[in-house]
């Protein structure tokens, strides 16, 4: 590296011995041994010679160290594909010129401010927010500035890059390439104990990175001011903990998921203890990840990284809409030059795509990839994207890449949630779909009503415990977030509009699709269960709802029953047996009492246009169907 005296220093030179001199050097005995008789230009480096029957050689690991066993062992435990310029990452995504300028500047300012107290930068963002493109751009900037020490780009689909095990050795390897004496120390450490790669990550980092650096610094063997100091780790969430041979993003089972999270947390803890807390080291570490469990809990208030890490929340802090316009404009103009038709697209088309992207670069990148596929017309493919609506048996699938991403994340979250013993019998997809419907004010087409509830109230009606949403959405934080509304209530927000489209279309979600009717069926059963279980016999009827003497959470759930029950019934699948049982347990009488109580509450009646007229119309529709089937109602 330029400016690094150890790298500019010419290699140690060893002479070529004549045959007579070689034989002399090999002879045993004699009062004086001459190794380099007649030689010139000899630099013996760190070799110490003792006139005795045993010779000890101390080597700093530079040229002339004939023992490479340790380095060879290290090479067997690295991931060459993870380097920022590896052939496996050919044409890796990076930021276009004049895009992501603000966030790139913030990152580079942090990197170059070596006096800043925080030596760890964590950037979290939704799936498809452009984190890897930013990391690649930063890696190339740091290479140009001669400050990149090491980089590791994780990938869930590469068996050498989806495991934590290779990260520390690969970083040590890259640092060793930049300083021959550092390399010698690493080689010696590995040769001393070849089992080092089975040690804890903190121990590996200490022996392979911290100690070699400190040893050289104390011996004045390097200049810390000129030593490359930037370490980049991209896609921490993609380290699933063990090898995978699947060709698409793997769906780990619950045990694998927990082990992966534990290993990710172990790496973060090791970086904190060995690098972030060590003021004698020059390194600054930049980690990018989806906001999954390991990094999310470490960065939250009270987390062990909150005080030591500089945190950039990419999806929340930066609006990438302008960058996406420039990205599409530039690329569409290039296509126009190639097909000799500069008018093949319109500004309105670009704006439509930007709005559909919801701030996530993965959408526009997917669209561009589809439009530029070989042997296709860009103009025709653009029309397909703009007008595309899915239907069964459709061959054209412009968003197939996105669908695989969503399916992988959703399937993994389902397995992780349903594997918890206290969640036994719960249907993750149904619960999440209910909350997703509530984002759009819970529209039920068959009843023509919107039934938007607060997140807490809907969870209570679904039978979830208080604040269960944190757990329900825990493994979906790369796609959704919880935020406070104007009244202080928590609300679910989806980062991607295209994710909402995916959930609503069976042809895209496939086996992960949950129809509205299934959600209404489940909620109808819950309403009947709540009415039957709670003793709704009042004498007299309370004057207001809050005087209803049940636990607040259950009171809120029963309020949702009063508002929504008839609409849920109308939107549900056949429930003849359940309604018969509800009738047998005096459910209709209890429902009447519940409605009287609700209407007595300051004359307030139903929300979102679900008037008393619509409420009764929905119930009459259900009862008429029951009459046709000869099912006794009252």
Automatic annotation (TrEMBL):
The keyword Cell inner membrane does not apply. Residues 105-290 form the Nephrocystin 3-like N-terminal domain. Keywords: Repeat. It holds the Pfam family NPHP3_N. The keyword Nucleus does not apply. Residues 1-37 are annotated as: Disordered. PANTHER family: AMELOGENIN (PTHR10039), FUNGAL STAND N-TERMINAL GOODBYE DOMAIN-CONTAINING PROTEIN-RELATED (PTHR10039:SF17). This is Nephrocystin 3-like N-terminal domain-containing protein. It comes from Candolleomyces aberdarensis.
């Amino acid at each position: 590296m330029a400016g690094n005296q150890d790298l500019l220093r010419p290699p140690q030179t060893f002479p070529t011995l004549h045959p007579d001199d070689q034989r002399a050097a090999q002879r045993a005995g004699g009062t004086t041994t001459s190794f380099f008789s007649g030689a010139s230009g000899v630099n013996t480096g760190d070799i110490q010679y003792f006139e005795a029957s045993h010779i000890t050689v101390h080597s700093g690991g530079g040229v002339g160290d004939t023992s490479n066993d340790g380095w060879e062992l290290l090479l067997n435990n690295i991931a060459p594909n993870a380097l920022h310029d590896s052939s496996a990452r050919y044409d890796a995504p990076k930021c276009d010129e004049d895009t992501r300028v603000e966030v790139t500047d913030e990152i580079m300012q942090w990197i170059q401010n070596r006096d800043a107290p925080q030596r760890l930068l964590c950037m979290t963002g939704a799936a498809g927010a452009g984190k890897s493109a930013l990391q690649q751009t930063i890696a190339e900037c740091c290479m140009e500035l001669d400050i990149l020490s090491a980089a590791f780009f994780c990938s869930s689909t590469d068996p050498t890059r989806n495991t934590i095990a290779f990260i520390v050795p690969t970083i040590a390897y890259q640092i060793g390439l930049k300083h021959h004496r550092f390399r010698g120390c690493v080689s010696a450490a590995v040769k001393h104990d070849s089992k080092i790669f089975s040690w804890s990550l903190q121990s590996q980092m200490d022996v392979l990175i911290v100690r070699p650096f400190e040893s050289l610094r104390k011996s004045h063997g390097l200049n810390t001011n000129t030593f490359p100091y930037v370490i980049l780790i991209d896609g921490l969430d993609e380290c699933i903990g063990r090898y995978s041979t699947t060709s698409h993003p793997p769906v780990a089972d619950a045990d694998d998921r927990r082990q992966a999270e534990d290993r990710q947390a172990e790496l973060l803890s090791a970086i904190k203890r060995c690098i972030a807390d060590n003021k004698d080291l020059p390194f600054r570490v930049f980690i990018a990840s989806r906001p999954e469990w390991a990094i999310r809990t470490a960065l939250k208030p009270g987390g062990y990284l909150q005080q030591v890490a500089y945190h950039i929340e990419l999806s929340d802090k930066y609006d990438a809409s302008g960058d996406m316009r420039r990205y599409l404009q530039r690329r569409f103009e290039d296509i126009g030059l190639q097909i000799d038709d500069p008018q093949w697209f319109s500004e309105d088309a670009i704006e439509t795509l930007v709005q559909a992207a919801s701030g996530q670069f993965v959408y526009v990148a997917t669209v561009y990839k589809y439009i530029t596929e070989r042997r296709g017309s860009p103009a025709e493919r653009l029309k397909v994207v703009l007008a595309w609506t899915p239907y069964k048996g459709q061959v054209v699938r412009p968003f197939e890449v996105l669908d695989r991403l969503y399916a992988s994340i959703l399937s993994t979250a389902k397995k992780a949630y349903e594997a918890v013993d206290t969640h036994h019998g719960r249907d993750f997809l149904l619960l999440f779909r209910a909350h997703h419907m509530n984002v759009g004010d819970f529209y039920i087409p068959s009843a023509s009503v919107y039934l938007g509830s607060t997140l807490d109230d809907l969870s209570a009606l679904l039978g979830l415990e208080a604040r269960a949403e944190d757990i329900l959405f825990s493994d979906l934080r790369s796609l959704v977030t919880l935020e406070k509304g104007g009244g202080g209530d928590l609300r679910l927000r989806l980062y991607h509009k295209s994710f909402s489209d995916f959930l609503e279309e069976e042809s895209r979600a496939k086996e992960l699709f949950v129809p509205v009717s299934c959600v209404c069926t489940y909620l109808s059963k819950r309403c009947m269960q709540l009415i039957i279980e709670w003793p709704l016999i009042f004498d007299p009827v309370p004057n207001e709802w809050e005087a209803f003497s049940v636990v607040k959470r259950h009171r809120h759930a029963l309020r949702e029953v009063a508002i929504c029950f008839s609409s849920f019934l109308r939107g549900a699948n056949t429930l003849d047996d359940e309604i018969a049982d509800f009738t047998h347990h005096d459910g209709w009488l209890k429902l009447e009492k519940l409605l009287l109580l609700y209407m007595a509450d300051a004359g307030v009646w139903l929300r979102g246009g679900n008037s008393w007229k619509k409420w009764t119309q929905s119930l009459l529709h259900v009862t008429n169907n029951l009459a046709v089937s000869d099912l006794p109602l009252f």
